[in-house]
Amino acid sequence: MIQDISEKISWLKKHPLILKGIFRGIERETLRIQKNGKFSKSLHPNVIGSPLTHKWITTDFAENLLEFVTPASNNVDYLLSFLKDLHSFVALKIKNERMWPFSIPYCYDDKTNIKIAQYGTSNVGRKKTTYRIGLKTRYGDLVNTISGVHYNFSLPVSFWEICKEKNNIESISSGYLNLIRNYYRFGWIIPYLFGTSPAISSYFLKNAKKKYQFKKNKENIFYLPWSTSLRLSDIGYTSTKITDLNIMFNDLSSYLESLKNTLITPSKKFAKIGVKDINGNFQQLNTNILQMENELYTQIRPKRKTHNGELLIEALQNKGIEYVEIRSLDINPFSSIGINKNQILLLDLFLIWCALMDSPNMDREDFLLTTKNWEKIIFEGRKPNQKIYINQKNETKTLVEIGETIFKDLNKIACILDSSQNNVLYQTVCKKIILFFKNPELTYSAQFLKNFIKKGVKKTGLALSNKYHEQFIHRSHKNFHKNFLEQEVIRSHQKQKNIEKEDILSFEDYIQT
């Protein structure tokens, strides 16, 4: 199941400096809440900038769903410092509110009013809001408030030049697609290690109570004893599965063609909803399978920066894949910013490993096999003697066997990275996290569940949100980026006004272009 990549690791050892140019970026989502834990009723605060145009602070689905975006950097410490400064800046501006430290919004009831994010009167702003109205219409509003952390990762061009012995769009894109296929095959390791959503509110369950053997606490929160990340399950947020859409990652042209088809193919289900309601208000952007590329929810996506209204599909087609976006990270409640350095270092190692290892093309049956493994880990990853499928014949190996085999390679890669940086950071992370396989109680989901059962989710969540708020307020006095962020608030509001002045098309004409 797992190839011997000792030759490739030996090759990497001869070229250790090619990994110095790894760039990373983080996008962290978090709900603004009232001090009692309920959803904030206020709009996105004007004092933290325009969510349409602010480079680093925006909103996701709802007005109270913040999203912090870091610049790309090859310095992990700078990345984490910048993210802390963003949190600190916002905490100072919303002193009477807090940031929810979990992926799942547990403090929700029938009276909760979820306000869809607003981006002003410009066509581009109205399109963003209408897209979100479509998400609510298609999938519901509560499920769209589930939060996560996205990790953006790119290997330096020099890596692909030496590894592939050529540097062109096709070659680099092929390398990233190789990485993506391996992530689907083995990426379930990430929710096993770092998943933190083994419990979920009854409002999400609907018919799932009959399907899974849930236990329940006094707060009417349901959980599965061995679960790791219900956020990634069909109970959490999911759109149409990529296997149903026949979207594969074997080559860039076929991937883009399949994705394009979802954007132009009408859906019978969504056609019944209609584009507008009886009063002429938009219900969704269109009735196609996907309204926009962003509606394709996957564990990992190929990405590229876009400019001046350029569509992602166009950018990828013209210039190839620039980086990958890892979307399978729950918010880490044990970190004030939702992610910690150990997670980043481990992800680095694992993604390099995915890039080094050959990855045969995958067909629908291969994807269905990987889906079974992801589901095993999501719903019962910490189950004693858990087994993983290794081929289409339903042969299995234990999670411990597979995990330890992977970590042998990761530790070798860690030695190479550490030698070029004259430290042992990566090796230390390997030694710490490999213990999670033989002792599942060390995993983040087990730690979460222990606190959840002992103290209750609301009490735990509020205690953490208050603790982190105080840390952010204290940090605000030494926020290196404070003035920079204040200037960005002014710039973002002015840019939104400029955009609104420049519109010449009606909104209906705009969304059809």
TrEMBL record:
<keyword id="KW-0317">Glutathione biosynthesis</keyword>
<dbReference type="GO" id="GO:0005524">
    <property type="term" value="F:ATP binding"/>
</dbReference>
<comment type="similarity">
    <text>Belongs to the glutamate--cysteine ligase type 1 family. Type 1 subfamily.</text>
</comment>
<keyword id="KW-0067">ATP-binding</keyword>
<dbReference type="GO" id="GO:0004357">
    <property type="term" value="F:glutamate-cysteine ligase activity"/>
</dbReference>
<dbReference type="InterPro" id="IPR006334">
    <property type="entry name" value="Glut_cys_ligase"/>
</dbReference>
<keyword id="KW-0436">Ligase</keyword>
<dbReference type="Pfam" id="PF04262">
    <property type="entry name" value="Glu_cys_ligase"/>
</dbReference>
<dbReference type="GO" id="GO:0046872">
    <property type="term" value="F:metal ion binding"/>
</dbReference>
<dbReference type="InterPro" id="IPR014746">
    <property type="entry name" value="Gln_synth/guanido_kin_cat_dom"/>
</dbReference>
<comment type="pathway">
    <text>Sulfur metabolism; glutathione biosynthesis; glutathione from L-cysteine and L-glutamate: step 1/2.</text>
</comment>
<dbReference type="InterPro" id="IPR007370">
    <property type="entry name" value="Glu_cys_ligase"/>
</dbReference>
<dbReference type="GO" id="GO:0006750">
    <property type="term" value="P:glutathione biosynthetic process"/>
</dbReference>
<feature type="domain" description="Glutamate--cysteine ligase">
    <location>
        <begin position="11"/>
        <end position="377"/>
    </location>
</feature>
<dbReference type="GO" id="GO:0005829">
    <property type="term" value="C:cytosol"/>
</dbReference>
<keyword id="KW-0547">Nucleotide-binding</keyword>
<protein>
    <recommendedName>
        <fullName>Glutamate--cysteine ligase</fullName>
        <ecNumber>6.3.2.2</ecNumber>
    </recommendedName>
</protein>
